[in-house]
Amino acid sequence: MPTTLTFFPVGNGDMTLIKFGDGVATTLMIDVNIRQDADDPNGDAHDVARDLRERLKRDDKGRPYVDAFLLSHPDEDHCRGITRHFHLGPLDEYPDDDEDDQDKRIVIREIWSSPIVFRRKKKDSPNLCPDAEAFAKEARRRVSVNRKQAFIVGEGDRILILGEDVEGKTDDLGSILIKVDERFSRINGKESSYFSGLLLAPLEVKDEESEEDSLAKNRSSTIINFTLAADASTPDGANFVTGGDAEVFIWNRLWEHYESEAEALSYDLLQAPHHCSWHSLSHDSWSDDGEDAEVDEGARNALSQARDGAIIVASCNPIEDDDNDPPCIRAKREYQDILKDGSGDFYCTGDDPNSTLVFTVTADGIQPPSKKESGSKAAAVISSARTPMPHGAS
Predict the structure, then answer these.
(1) Which residue of 15, 101, 231, 258 lies most exposed, with the fewest beta carbons within 10 A?
(2) Residue 335: inside a domain
(3) What sections of the chain are H helices per DSSP?
């Protein structure tokens, strides 16, 4: 079974499932946005909760589960529905064993969370939504259990902390702490030969208050460049970059840091940050400045490290030629321009809101969705040649 990446149609929001091609089909969930309408049998939204459950395995007690859940940042459109559809709390308090399968909450065997991202979010917007508060509470519970049990814990208590927190608050979390610039391949307590992840952000804590303010206001998010195996003999089948809602200041700083080793930012598949927002590419307002808005060169360079045949996916509403942002038509044009020299392709989950987009990692690169899966594009294999676009391409 090959590694697959499924992007669910959730409007302006993120909800992505990676299913690794190992023998047990290990799963990593990245964000969730299950709108109330999607839970309503009479609603118009695609039933992404049911769609997700159909893609998950069950444990020996019949409980659906993901091996790990990464919350990129605590905005509502990245965690909406988590308390309705996922179990938060110790496994011995799981409440749904007597429920029908479709009503059982999904077990999260391991959480991937970043306390500094939460801290920056609360600095910029003090009130978290209820789902984000519940996730943060569960993350704190798991950290506490790990500390008490010398980091020897089982499924349902596992956690990885992504990025260091302020004032040494994470200094004693050595075995569960992943630092920025560190590469890791552990998921649910086990090493995997089917992926490795390079943690690019959250950017490290800054002493300058103005710098921290800018990080908070630019939607600090976890950014990871995943190297995904196609099979046991092809460990570097494709690179996938996911970056939540990170905006222009953050991408600019990433380029400053990685310009001399730009391969760290290269990708075969990129999830367009912040739902194809112009604010990931520019300090200017699209609605105010229109075509006079200027692209930030550093941010664009960071997002331009597309390999030949690369794909960019925007998880957002349909992208119209209007003043909306996100999604923004000008951002879409920039991404298409980034891809054109390498014969890449651009997808939007909103183009067919009743279908998922499923990409397959093969020894030849990323295989796009078939026409049946995406409702729009025919199947073809796109090569993942290891040649990034020129740094200053425009």
Answers:
(1) 101
(2) yes
(3) 36-39, 48-55, 76-79, 82-85, 115-124, 130-148, 209-217, 248-258, 286-289, 297-303, 329-340, 371-374
Render pLDDT for 241-275 as a digit per residue (tens, 0 to 9).
999 999 999 999 999 999 999 999 999 999 999 99
Task: Write down the pTM of the prediction.
Answer: 0.92
The structural domain count of the chain equals: 1
What gap in Å lies between CA 58 and CA 100, rounded to an integer?
A: 13
Residue 24 contacts residue 5 (beta carbons within 8 Å): no
Contact 48, 15 (CB under 8 A): yes
Q: Edge to edge, what strands does the sheet with 4-7 contain?
A: 177-178, 158-162, 110-113, 68-70, 27-30, 16-19, 4-7, 357-362, 365-367, 382-383
Which residues have a Cβ under 8 Å from the Cβ of 143 and sit 6 or more positions away? Answer: 159, 161, 173, 176
Q: Is the peptide bond before 327 cis (omega within 30 degrees of 0)?
A: yes
Rounded to 5 degrees, what are φ and ψ at 326? -85, 165
- Confidence grade of residue 41 (pLDDT, cut at 50, 70, 90): low
Is 326 part of a structural domain of the chain?
yes
Q: Which 8-state DSSP code applies to residue 325?
A: S
